[in-house]
Write a structure and sequence with these properties.
Length: about 80
């Protein structure tokens, strides 16, 4: 499922759309952080990444590939 379906609404400040995006993005983001869990506070990293996503979503440009916002979130880690 391409979570970018929520991007336009998130960019306008729709907190419910962001919540729906987080519901789909949380598991892949946690999975991406799993290998670091023994050395760092992955919960803090996840929360920071989600905050950054909320702040920069209006500037994220779709590039024709699915899940641009999720890919940005992974790079924000």
């Amino acid at each position: 499922m391409d979570l970018d379906a929520h991007l336009a609404a998130i960019a306008t400040g729709d907190a419910d759309a962001f919540g729906r995006w987080v519901a789909g993005a949380e598991a892949p983001l946690r999975g991406a952080l799993r290998s670091f869990a023994a050395r760092v506070d992955t919960e803090a990293i996840l929360q920071e990444a989600l905050l950054r996503v909320w702040q920069v979503a209006p500037r994220v440009a779709l590039d024709g590939k699915p899940n641009a916002l999720l890919r940005f979130a992974r790079s924000a880690n």
